[in-house]
Structure formats: structure tokens, C-alpha cells
Amino acid sequence: MAYDAFKTMMKAYNLMKDGPLLHVSASLVAAVICTTCHMPFDVVLVVYQSAHSLGDSNHQLRSGPLTCANALLRESGPKVFFRGWTPAFVRLAPVCVFSFWLYEQLRRLVGIGYLD
């Protein structure tokens, strides 16, 4: 959705023409939004699962994902949910860019045209 929304907005305001540069730009925006949205879930899942195996003494980290998220928020503040954002983005961005760009180019190659 972020890819399509950004691409539509850029075309609507005549900021970029539909083409590979727009596809790469929209892909990067989609990667930023995807990384930002999934990081809190990823952080809670990693802490919750590792607390069991590491024998963490904080029972709240082992009680359940929601309790774990609440304990992380109380102990470290909201920034804790974005710990590791940069490595996650570096891993996700090339996948987004390549797959969206390839999808658009294949559509054009077979005569369907770019995604509107």
C-alpha cells in the first residue's frame, strides 16, 4: 500500500514521471514504512523468546508477548521498540527495491504497462 500510495501521489502532483526512478523511490518509501511498522513486533518477539532460553530473572518478560511489551515500555521507553531499525532496513530495502522494480519492468515487458 505504501508503494502504491507514494507512486500515485508523486504522479498526481507531477513530481516524477512513471518509470524506474519512481519505482525505486516508491520502493524505498515502502521499505521505510514496512520496517517502521514491523519493528515493535519484532523486538517484542525476540525479547520474549530469548527471555525463556536465557533464563531472564524478569518474570514479566516471560509471561506473554503483551506483558513483555508493557515491561519493555515501562523499563526503557518507546524507543526500545525501534532497536535494530537500521539493520532491519538495510536487510529489507534491497528486497523491496528489487521486487517492486522487477515487477513493474516485467509488466511493461509483457505489454501490460506500469502499475497505475
UniProtKB/TrEMBL annotation:
Signal peptide positions on this chain: none
Q: How does it sit in the membrane?
A: Multi-pass membrane protein
Residue spans of the Solcar repeats: 18-109
This chain's source organism reads Symbiodinium natans
Kindly list the places in or outside the cell where this protein is found, as annotated in its UniProt entry.
Answer: Membrane
* A cellular component annotation (GO) from this entry: membrane
- UniProt cross-references to InterPro entries, sorted A to Z: MCP_dom_sf, MCP_transmembrane, Mito_Metabolite_Transporter
Annotated protein name in UniProt: DIC1 protein
Q: What sections of the protein cross the membrane? A: 21-41, 84-103
Task: Supply the Pfam families for this chain.
Answer: Mito_carr
Q: What is its main location?
A: membrane
